[in-house]
Amino acid sequence: MAELAGTQSQSQAQLRQPPLAPLHGYDPGGLFCEMLRPGQPPHQSLALLLSRLSETPVEALRMRAADAERDLLERGITFTVYSDAAAIDRILPFDLIPRVITAAEWRQIETGVVQRVHALNLFLHDIYHRQQILSDGVVPRELILGNAAFCPAMQDFDVPLGTYVHVCGTDIVRDDTGRFMVLEDNARTPSGVAYVVENRHMTQRIMSDMMAGMRVRGVDEYGLRLHRALTEIAPPGVTDPQVVVLSPGIFNSAYFEHVFLAREMGVPLVEGRDLMVENGKVWMRTTAGPAPVHAIYRRLNDDFLDPEAFRPDSQLGVPGLVQAWRRGSVGIANAVGTGVADDKSVYAYMPRIIRYYLSEEPILPNVETRICAEPDALAYTLDHLAELVVKPVAESGGYGLLIGPHASRAELADFRARLKADPANYISQPTLKLSVSPTLCDNGIGPRHVDLRPFAITGRDTWVLPGGLTRVALRAGTLVVNSSQGGGSKDTWVLA
Amino acid sequence: MSETVPRGSAPLIARHALGLLWLARYIERVESLARLLDVTRTFAWDDSDWTAILRINGDEASFFARYPEASQATVSRFYLLDTDNSTSVQAAMNSARENARTLRALISTEMWLHLNVLHTRIRALSEADLAPERLSALCTMLKEGAQAHSGITEGTFYRDQCWHFYMIGRCVERADQTTRLLDTRFNALAPHIMSGDAAIDDGGWNTLLRAAAGYHAYRREYPTGYRPVQVASFLLANTSFPRSVALNLLQLDWHLSQLRLRYHLRGGSAALERLDHLCGVLTNRTVADLVPRGLSPFLDWTQREIATLFDEIAAGFCGGG
Question: Which of B43, B112, B20 minimizes the C-alpha distance to B317?
């Protein structure tokens, strides 16, 4: 039925719609809009989506949005916040208007992400072996060896296939000219992929008429691909490797995603207490007694993985796990010590790292970044503080950063003092005019800033899920799209 | 994958097996509690009758620590709204959902969705729902919620080890709860037991059997009327009645044997022996012998045996109770 209705309105749309239909008075102003795409050739699917959205009253969209919200709560597609005795389920707000990426745009993102992950893995292998890039002076030695995320225990350990970053979430933004740029590499335990798939399922439930007849690439392959990569890093010679997902447990805010991943791969979701190491091998406690484990997709941070190797006070990890890994009796994804590669100060060197290992130009550029540890960069940053975004390199989640144009005089003065006291802890970037996407808001459809996190899986080769998490800053004007700071998400359509 | 790995042989984490046992028990507890409250509500002539349910559940101490007296209002609040009472519907539903969260990668999506919605509905109950004229409707809602869960489970839950553990939990809880339901009436009726015309329902057996969803089946089995011995036999030893102790223990035996035969699990031998003995005792003949002496001590003994059985199963397969 939906198929039929869609085809009908498609032909109608093609007959009478101009390339750009008015979208309930939507006006992105001078910002780059992901749907109107100023300055780019008109795209048939986008024009069709736009006409379908324009023909749907805002009130009807609001009713669908209400259905979606109830649906998310009922399905428990939530993160749980535990306060005192009560467990509160929160949803990641879902905006029903999709973000569309054309095939041509996707080619750049996909090849750019593959290139970047390749370089990250070569870089990690190098700094944990011969450290050639440090000897050649391309990246300062003290930046790596003095980095809190650098893990000396990884020195000279050959990880299976040379892959350190099995799952990578690359945060990508677009500026006011429509240029894609990498904002951040997430090479530890990036989260959000469950929302990519669940957002698609939601679209199929409440927006199937909008999607009908369009060639949107599927996102259901993720579990299969991840399982394959994990079997590739299992010890050689094991015919049916046992894979598990290792989670901190139901109190973790990303627990829903851990469930999702275990279910999509069809493997047990375990906690540290379900695993043990004996005779140098990893076992899980099952109803039939101990059963061997060959590959672990862990969603615990390095520090909590193994109390013998890291934090003796940790209740979450598995004593002896890292030793078993080093002996080659189990594969672990992501590898330990990858945090040094997605560090905000190392990020600044990524274009040089790509050129160094691959002799290629970066397909996806960085946001222009100054490292305040360098005197020139510090001087520039202090001179232009009111125009820049300044980030502490050790923080994540959008905390502790300064957005110059939005800061008061007192905030600027305060930040200047902090920056001068510890310049090595900061990087600065120009304030980007992030692209926007039409979003259902309280007063109609408005432009809201978006970013994109595609997910890349690497075993023997790298595969990028054709889609990604589009996070949207739901408050007007705000540039922070992080989900722990009031952001929402959209379904991301990659067109074939 | 599925070509190389034999079907149904996926390993089950011991902790998850324990969670499955408890998920089924907690949901069954919601249903049983609703049945107990409904039958109490129907029989209660005055407030003294409301202490019976507290005694049967062993809740007298915790109840009177916080409520001055037992009445329909206080006991139904204790069991239906009180989140601090670990034997309340609220507590059972919370525990069911927390277990379901842990098991979410194993149970079907539809089971999870329904449990999640039922949890929200139960959590939203208020004092107004306990009004005398609405209490029966509330009990019906709880029963139907639990039954919908059972139906969804029957229709969507993959029949591997997980299902057997789930079913064991349900059988254990049902067997246990039926002994409690029976206990609500037998004590009050002790003086009448040896007398009376079978055709006259002076014990309210009708209502008791209805609460256990066994009224029509009982009539078919014993068309001549109600005799306490027959009611007790029906609820304890009948192997066709879905909530009888004997049938649930037989089914439990089958599920345990399946775990050992099909999945080559080595645990559960102590439980199987105990089960064998229990099934041997729960016959029409034993019940007929026991009723004249009073059933309560036997029901207490059966409850203790079932509890030990459960601990043995948990220890045998799940690495501890």
Answer: B20
